[in-house]
Amino acid sequence: MKIKRYAVFVTPKQPMSLWTILIIWFCLLQPTYLKTDVPEPTEQKHQRIHHHQRSEATSVHVTANYITLNKYKFRHKLYNVTIPENSVGKTYAIPLAREDIMGIAIIPGAEVKYRIVAGDRDKLFKAEERLVDDIAFLAIRTRTSNVVLNREKNEEYLLKVRAMIKYNLGDDYISDETETTVHIRVLDRNDLSPLFYPIEYAQIVPEDMPIHRSILRVTAEDADLGVNGEIYYSFLIDNEYFSIHPTTGVITLNRQLRYTESSHYNLTVLANDRGSAVNHYNHQSSKAKVSITVEQVSNSMFKYTYIYIYMTCCKPT
Fold first, then answer.
1. Taking a C-beta distance cutoff of 8 angstroms, is the pair 312, 304 a contact?
2. Of 92, 184, 253, 305, whose CB is crowded by the most CB atoms within 10 A?
3. What is the CATH classification number for the domain harbouring 229?
C-alpha cells in the first residue's frame, strides 16, 4: 500500500533532448568562444610593463647589494700560513692550526679567480681557487721554476690577493672584487753548516801552566734557526791533555805539560749543529785547526833550590 502511494508522487526522469546534448558538447570543445576578451588600454598596458620592469630592476639591485655585502667577502683581512724553505714547485702553503680556511662563500653558478696583485716581486708564488659546494677556497703554492725559497734571504712575505667574481643575476651579468692579505712565514730547514771564523787558531802556553786553565776559545756560527743553529764542539781525535766545552768552545788544559815530552800539539775541532743530531739527519759540520806550542820553562830555579836544600840538610858537622 505504501509502495503504491510513493510511486504516485515520484515522477519518472525525463531524458535530455538532442539539442541540449549538442550545445553542451560544443561548449566543452570550444571554451574560447564563450570568453569575452576586453582589450587593455594602451596607456594602462605601458604603465603595467614599466612597473614590472622597475620591480625586477629593484629586486636585482637589492639582491646584488646583499650578495656583495654579505657573500663575496673574505672573513678575515689577514691570513697566516707557513711553507718550508727550499720547497720544490707546487708546494702548498699550510694555514696555521688556529686559523680559518682561506676562501669566500659564493652562490651556485658563480665563477671565482684569485690573483696575487702585490708582495711577490720575484714571482715565487701562485694563487689558485678550489670550488667545493658553495665555498671558493684560496690556495697559495710555489711556482714551478728554478727559484727556491731561502729563509736566510727572506723569511716572510706579505701577499695581497684579489678575488674576481662573476655571476648571473636575472638577465644581468655582474662582476665583483674583494681582497685580503696572506702572511707567509718560511720555515727553516737545516740546510747550512756551521762556519768557523777564523778557521785556524794558534796559542803558546808555558809548560808549567796549571791544569784546568783555559787556553783559548773557538767560535762557529750557523744561520739556521732554533736547534738547527745551535752548535756542539768536539775534537776530531780525543787528546788526553786537552778538552773542549761542547757549547762554549773553550779549550782547557787537562794534564800537566812537559816540554821534553812534546813541544807542539795539533788539534782539529768539529762544529756540529744540534738539528742534525736531534732529527737524525746527516750532520752539518765544519772543522777548524788549533795549534798549541809548549814553551819551555827555565829549571835553574829548581836546581838552585835543590842544591840549597841538599847543602842545608846534608852538610857534615
1. no
2. 184
3. 2.60.40.60
Burial of 98 (0-12, 13-18, 19+ CB in 10 A): exposed
Grid cell locating 138: 684560496
* Location of C-alpha cell 655582474: 174
Whole-angstrom distance, CA of residue 65 vs CA of residue 176: 11
Domain count, the chain: 2
Residues 102 and 205 in one domain: no
Pairing relationship of beta strands 200-206 and 285-295 according to DSSP bridges: parallel
Segment 249-295, tens digit of pLDDT:
999 999 999 999 999 999 999 998 877 555 545 557 899 999 999 99
Cβ partners under 8 Å of residue 180, min gap 6: 74, 76, 77, 78, 79, 102, 138, 160, 161, 163
C-alpha cell at 219: 767560535
Confidence at residue 250, expressed as pLDDT on a 0 to 100 scale: 97
- Specify if 240 maps to a domain: yes
Assess whether 170 and 99 both reside in one domain: yes
- Domain shared by 77 and 174, yes or no: yes
Query: If phi over 0 gives left and psi between -120 and 50 gives alpha, with beta otherwise, what is residue 132?
Result: beta
Tens-digit pLDDT profile for residues 153-196: 888 999 999 999 888 776 777 888 999 999 999 988 777 788 99
- Cell numbers for 228, please give them: 738547527
Q: Cα–chain-centroid distance for residue 248?
A: 35
This model's pTM is above 0.70:
no
Structural domain of residue 161, as residue ranges? 71-187
Q: Position of cell 806550542?
A: 293
- Element holding 20 (H helix, E strand): helix 18-29
Q: Provide the 8-state DSSP code for 91.
A: P
Residue type, 33: Y
Give the Cβ contact number of residue 95 at 10 Å.
Answer: 18
Q: Do residues 202 and 278 share a domain? A: yes
